[in-house]
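Why should sequence recovery work at all? Because a backbone constrains its sequence more than one might expect. Tight turns favour small or flexible residues, buried strands favour hydrophobic ones, and helices have their own preferences. The token representation captures these environments compactly. In the example below, the structure is given first.
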């Protein structure tokens, strides 16, 4: 896959792509290059029909410590238009990740500060270590979590986001699970096995159906419950039922065998 300097993008024979933040010596902190490379990687994954699932992870002890200090120092010297361009790149990253056609799973250990919470919130699912530490730390340095706030609020609720964005308190993996930011949390020694189990479970499912289900839920969540939404759901299931993949799934169920996408995932 494409050569990167601050991230790594791997893909296995099952179609599982793993996108690693790869600045362990900097605690996987963000800078302009990291953001640009993440945008390139997500564009590549989005257009690759062989990718069935994206897993987002961080190398080393921490998922990501948020913004790189040297980058923040450089940003302080930029004018409004340059800062607006920087914000646009970050916003593009969050939107690309949130709208990726394939399902996404974040696996979180150590620190996840600032913009890292945006990445986690933009993933469809996230798991983490019980002792992971989360923080919306921006107000401590005179900033706000502007670009990531819509995604974080959607993931863990307006009230909780208001508390943690205003106080900049740290909270644990267990608290993140209570708030809905994490789907589940585990002792750090069990996190890798748990991640593998989550991947294996997702790979049991129809690749086309996963994409369609993700799109369905995005539509359902953003539209009123009216005749147009009803029509959308009726047309979606009718269209899916006649596709080769759905026909294979139905036949496999009736014939009590594995569908062909499960055979390719073993």
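From this structural description, the recovered sequence reads:
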């Amino acid at each position: 896959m494409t050569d990167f300097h601050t991230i790594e993008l791997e893909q296995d024979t099952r179609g599982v792509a793993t996108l690693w933040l790869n600045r362990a010596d900097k605690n996987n902190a963000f800078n302009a290059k990291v953001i640009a490379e993440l945008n390139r990687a997500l564009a590549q994954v989005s257009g690759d029909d062989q990718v069935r699932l994206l897993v987002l992870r961080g190398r080393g002890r921490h998922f990501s410590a948020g913004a790189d200090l040297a980058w923040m120092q450089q940003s302080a010297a930029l004018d409004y238009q340059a800062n607006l361009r920087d914000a646009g790149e970050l916003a593009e990253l969050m939107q690309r990740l949130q709208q990726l056609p394939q399902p996404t799973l974040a696996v979180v250990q150590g620190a996840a500060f600032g913009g890292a919470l945006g990445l986690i919130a933009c993933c469809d699912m996230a798991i983490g270590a019980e002792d992971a530490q989360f923080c919306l730390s921006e107000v401590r340095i005179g900033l706000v979590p502007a670009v990531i706030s819509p995604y974080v609020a959607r993931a863990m609720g307006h009230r909780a986001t208001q508390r943690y964005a205003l106080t900049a308190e740290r909270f644990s993996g267990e608290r993140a699970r209570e708030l809905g930011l994490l789907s589940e949390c585990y002792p750090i020694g069990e996190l890798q096995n748990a991640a593998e189990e989550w991947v294996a479970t997702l790979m049991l499912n129809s690749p086309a159906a996963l994409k369609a289900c993700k799109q369905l839920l995005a539509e359902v969540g953003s539209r009123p419950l009216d005749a147009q939404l009803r029509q959308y759901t009726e047309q979606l299931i009718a269209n899916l039922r006649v596709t080769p993949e759905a026909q294979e799934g139905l036949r496999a169920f009736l014939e009590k065998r594995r569908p062909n996408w499960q055979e390719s995932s073993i």
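A few observations help interpret the result. The chain has a mean pLDDT of 94.
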